[in-house]
Write a structure and sequence with these properties.
Strand order of the largest sheet: 2-1-5-6
Largest sheet: 4 strands, antiparallel
Number of strands: 10
Structural class: alpha+beta
Radius of gyration: 31 Å
Strand content: 35-45%
Number of helices: 1
Order of helices and strands: EEEEEEEEEEH
Distance between the termini: 99 Å
Helix content: 25-40%
């Protein structure tokens, strides 16, 4: 089962246990949030499309963490007026794990994490470990791709630098050959 939900001005296609990063939502890590702007719900060939939203449909999600996005540079300029402004911005983000997709009229399912024998803190610890591992795996993938891009850029820069240095060395060789010739001419005049 999947759902298309809208939050923060964007639409996300989600299914159970998906981890998504959305615009900042209020809530601390470990709390649950119900998202009620569901545009579509589908299961196999059976789909329900809202006009524009499905009444009574909800997606339950658990807040994994509140974080800030990558820094971007905002640069404003007006030509010929000596007006230049540079500022940075980091967007506030919320990391969510989708726990349930509820169609209209359904009640929230019983949580599998808590049982009568375990306390709330014991039940939360394994979930935190899973959350951290899932997030760390995503970070590792991002870091690997960034490192790969950096290595490609460095190799391209080296080849470009080598191409620039070759003509410079050749021209430097001709200049050094000319210098002794000019100095010899001076000596011949002095003799």
């Amino acid at each position: 089962m999947y759902a298309v939900l809208k939050t923060g001005g964007k639409q996300y296609r989600v299914s159970e246990n998906d981890i998504i990063i959305v615009e900042k939502l209020s809530g601390e890590a470990g709390s649950t949030i119900d998202l009620d702007e569901i545009l579509m719900i589908g299961e196999g060939s059976n789909t329900t499309v809202g006009t524009p939203v499905i009444d009574g449909a909800r997606v339950a999600a658990e807040v994994l963490e509140q974080k800030r996005g990558k820094k971007i540079t905002v640069f404003k300029k007006k030509r010929r007026k000596n007006y230049r402004r540079t500022i940075g911005h980091r967007q506030e983000l919320t990391v969510l794990r989708i726990t349930d997709i509820l169609t209209s009229g359904e009640k929230k399912r019983a949580s599998k994490k808590t049982t009568a024998k375990t306390s709330k803190t014991d039940a939360a610890k394994p979930a935190e470990k899973l959350d951290k591992t899932a997030i760390s795996k995503n970070k590792e993938k991002i870091e690997k791709s960034a490192a790969k891009k950096k290595s490609q850029v460095k190799s391209e820069a080296k080849t470009a630098k080598a191409k620039v240095e070759k003509p410079a060395k050749e021209s430097a060789g001709t200049k050094s050959a000319q210098k002794p010739a000019t100095s010899n001419k001076k000596r011949s005049k002095e003799d």
